[in-house]
Amino acid sequence: MSDQMPHGGTPPRHTRRWQALLLCLLSALLLTAWTTTPRAVPRQDAAPGPPAAEEPVPAVARVWPIGLRPLVARAWQPPPTPYARGHRGVDLSAPAGSPVRAVAPGRVVFAGRVAGRGVVSIDLAGTGDPPLRTTYEPVRTSVRKGDTVTAGTLLGTLEATPSHCPTACLHWGLRRGDTYLDPLALLPPWLLRRGPSRLLPLS
Question: Which domains does the chain have, with CATH numbers?
């Protein structure tokens, strides 16, 4: 029997068998290659962990920014969102012309006028990166940008500019980066205690 396919006919039976066998082998090779080729594992997002705790505010202040123990006319009220209403600092009542002092060592990063009000901003030394920044307003400034200050350094005097306080007051603010914090947290307990210090008699 000739292996050649007759003109116009079908392939011989043994040729068809070889073709079927080759087709089966080729299919098996393709199936093996597909099942053994490494495929990307779908990414599974990690379960959300607890929110990062805010870095605590160190009690580095050694003096109040104004007076000995001024009245807090309005406390810190953090806004629920960055652009919402709130009170981003505390208001300390004091007579106009009272000296305003740096509460802790640092460097003056701004001293000038903003919207007609005198403002002093200080980056506190040794308080991390970004450092804590205190702000005092309205102040008739006596320091300049770049000045190094220590606790108690005179920054200027309280201006008698219109404000939301019933009387003259100093707005004292604190933030780290874009996050506003309670400036009273800078004060150690001995500075927060009410009432003047007294010397007891020896007897």
Answer: 72-192 (2.70.70.10)
> Are 61 and 186 contacting, i.e. CB atoms less than 8 angstroms apart?
yes
Q: pLDDT category, 161, cuts 50, 70, 90?
A: confident
Residue 22 has pLDDT above 50, yes or no: yes
The amino acid sitting at 176 is: R
Query: In this structure, are strands 106-114 and 117-124 parallel, antiparallel, or unpaired?
Result: antiparallel
More confident residue, 61 or 1: 61
Q: What is the pTM of this model?
A: 0.67
Q: Pick the most confident of 4-18, 88-102, 146-160, 177-191.
A: 146-160
